[in-house]
Amino acid sequence: KRYTGKSPRQYLLDYRLEKAVYLLKKTDTPISEITARLGFSTPEYFSKAFKKKMGQAPLHFRNL
Q1: Alpha carbons 44 and 31: distance in angstroms, whole number
Q2: I need a labelling partner for 28 at 20 to 30 A (CA). Which of 34, 35, 52, 57 fits?
Q3: How far is the C-alpha of 11 from the C-alpha of 6, rounded, in Å?
Q4: Sign of the dihedral defined by the CA atoms of residues 25, 40, 54, 13, in that order
Q5: Contact 20/59 with Cβ under 8 angstroms?
Q6: Contacts by residues 50-56 (CB-CB < 8 Å, ≥ 24 positions apart)
């Protein structure tokens, strides 16, 4: 926390969401596979966390 200003949990979540942004923009990988690959417990949790951070749902983000 001293180096990042974030808790380990928040740091890991932010890292996973950054990877999700890359995968959504640069690949055609299904969202369900991205969810599993990045270690999210459910697609619903992934979608909720993504929307909270990015301001839009993963599918909408991909289609922009």
Answers
A1: 11
A2: 52
A3: 6
A4: negative
A5: no
A6: 50/17, 50/20, 53/14, 53/17, 54/17, 54/21
Q: How many CB atoms lie within 10 A of CB 5?
A: 8
pLDDT at 56 over 90: yes
Reported pTM = 0.88
State how far the Cα of 39 lies from the Cα of 46, in Å rounded to an integer.
Answer: 9
Angle at 22 between CA 39 and CA 30, to 5 degrees: 60
How far is residue 25's CA from residue 42's CA, in Å, rounded to a whole number?
21
Q: Which amino acid, 18?
A: E
